[in-house]
Amino acid sequence: PGVVGVMLDSTNPNGGPDGSLDPAQLAWLEAELVALHGRYLDPDGRTVRTRNEDRLVVLFSHHNSRTFDNLATAPGEAASDRIGARAFEAVLHRFPNVVLWVNGHTH
Question: So what's the pLDDT on residue 107?
């Protein structure tokens, strides 16, 4: 009770051994995190208060922050819209109830 586990798919479907997130999955994760926080920071660093119950959040993914840099594009795409480690960690730091990120890849 009080702890929620969230599993992420960090595989880049465009190939490569390292990982990243697509924008749709990041948007989904942010919505889930908002729902699990009574207080969090918006992208500009302002405190947002909700009526949501605070829950502790544990994230799970195969890739870790050192291997979360695969921004490979699909054939024909000029630029990647995938989210790497820095942008991902910036989102996580806005949500204080995220207490653990369990991952592997480098074992």
Answer: 67
Half-sphere exposure of 92 (CA within 13 A, CB side): 18
* DSSP, residue by residue, 51-74: SPPP-EEEEE-SS-GGG----PPP
Q: Is the C-alpha dihedral spanning 56, 23, 15, 67 positive or negative?
A: negative
Per-residue confidence (pLDDT) for residue 1, from 0 to 100: 83
CA 7 to chain centre: 10
d(CA 98, CA 62) in angstroms, rounded, equals 17
Q: pTM surpassing 0.90?
A: yes
Other C-beta atoms closer than 10 Å to the C-beta of 13 total 10
